[in-house]
Amino acid sequence: MTAMEKKSKYSVLIDLDRLKDPYNGLGQVALNLAAELGRIHDDELEFTLLVPPEFAGKFGNQVNYEVISAKRRLFPFLCPGYDLWYTIHQDSWFFPSTRKTPYILTINDLNFLEEKKGIHLWYRINRLQTKVRHATVIITISKFTESVVRGNLKVGNTPVKVIYCGVSVPEFNNVSRPDYVPEGDILFNVGVVSPKKNLAVLIEFMKELPEKYVLVIAGNKCGEYAVNIEKRIRELGLERRIVLPGLISDEDKFWLYSHCKAVVFPSKREGMGFPPVEAMRFGKPVFASTFSSIPEVSEDKAYYWEKMDPRNMAEFFLEKIQEFDNDPSRPEILRKHSMKFTWENSTAELIRLFKEVLDNLLPPA
Question: What are the tens digits of pLDDT across the range 196-212?
Fold first, then answer.
C-alpha cells in the first residue's frame, strides 16, 4: 500500500504571496495557477492557497485559503501545518510550520548573479542556498535555468525537475485601439523596462527601419534605464514612432497582440520568457535574441538576431517579415507551438509531482 492510499486527502499549501503584485510576471503566474487550481477537483489532494487578504475566496470553493500574515512569516511554527508545501518562487518569506514538511521550491531564474555584487550577491546566494538545502524537490521553469542552478548552487542529491509555466493572455470582445498607439505597422514589446531586457537596442533598430514601422514598449518604466531610453528617443526624433506607455491593461495587451505586425524581444536574461509564447498564441512572428532560455522555449519558431547591431537587425527583420507574410501556414504553426505551454498542462505536471513526493516521502498513517 502506498502512502497516497493511507489517507483520503493530503493537504497541500500553495504559496501565492506574489498575488500582491498581479501585474508583474510572477504575479501573473500566481493568478493563473490559482485560477486553474480553483477549477480542479482532486480526489487525493486538498489545496490551500496562501494569498493576500483581498484574494481570499477569489478562486472559488474548490480550494481553501490562508491569508498572508506577520505570524506566518515570523512564527510559522505557530501556524497550521500541511502535508506538503509548494512555493512558486525562490524569494518568498513564507515557510512550512515544520522542516519535516516536504518542501517544493521553484527557482525561476538566477538573474541576480549579474545584477548584484559584493555583500548583496553573497547574501542572495546564501539565502537561496539555505532554501535549496531544505528543499525536497527543486523545480526550474526551463532547462537553461536548471543548468544555471546546478552551476551556481550546491544541489547535491536533491531532484531538479523542469516544469514550464503556462502562458495565457485574457481575451476580450470589442476592444478599442489604445489612444497612445501610433499609426503604422506596430512592433510590440511587453515586460519590465530594465537593462536585462536590452530594450535600448530597439531604439537604434527603429532608426534603421522604414518610417511606416512604429514601436510600443509596454511595462513598468520606473527607473533610470527607462529615463535614458526616452531621452534617446527624443534625441533621435522618434517620439512619434516609439512610445513607452508604462503598465497597460489586459485589454490593451490583447489589442496590441491582435493587431501588431510582430513582437520584438531582444532580452538578455529570461528564466523562460512569456512574450514570445504569448505572441505565437496570436499567430504573430517573433524576433528575439539568442540569449538564455529563449531559443529553448521558442525553438525554431522564432526569428533570431545573431548580432545585436541595429543595421543588421533591421536588414534581418525586413527580410524575414516578408518571408513570414508570404507563408500563410506560418501563423497556425506558431499557434500550435504555443499550445505546448498551457496552465492546464503545467498544473497537471505539478499535481503529478505533488503526488509522487507524497507517495515516496510521507510516513505510514
Answer: 999 999 999 999 999 99
pLDDT score at 34: 96
Report the distance separating Cα 218 and Cα 216, nearest Å: 6
What are the extents of the domains in the chain? Answer: 3-166+342-361, 185-338
| CATH class of this structure's domain 185-338 | alpha beta
3-state secondary structure of 92: coil
User: Is the CATH number of domain 3-166+342-361 3.40.50.2000?
Assistant: yes
Whether the Cβ atoms of residue 46 and residue 52 lie closer than 8 Å to each other: no
Mean per-residue pLDDT of the chain: 92
Length of the chain: 365
Q: To which H or E segment does residue 17 belong?
A: none
pTM over 0.90: no
**304 φ, ψ to 5°?**
-110, 130
CA dist 260 → 24, 96, 264, 272, 289 (Å) = 22, 45, 10, 22, 19
Greatest Cα pair distance in the chain = 72
DSSP 264-314: EE--S--SS-HHHHHHHHTT--EEE---TTHHHHHGGGSEE-SS--HHHHH
Give the start-end residues of each E strand in 124-206.
Answer: 137-140, 160-162, 185-192
Written as nine digits, the cell of 67 is: 491569508
DSSP β-ladder status, 160-162 and 303-304: unpaired
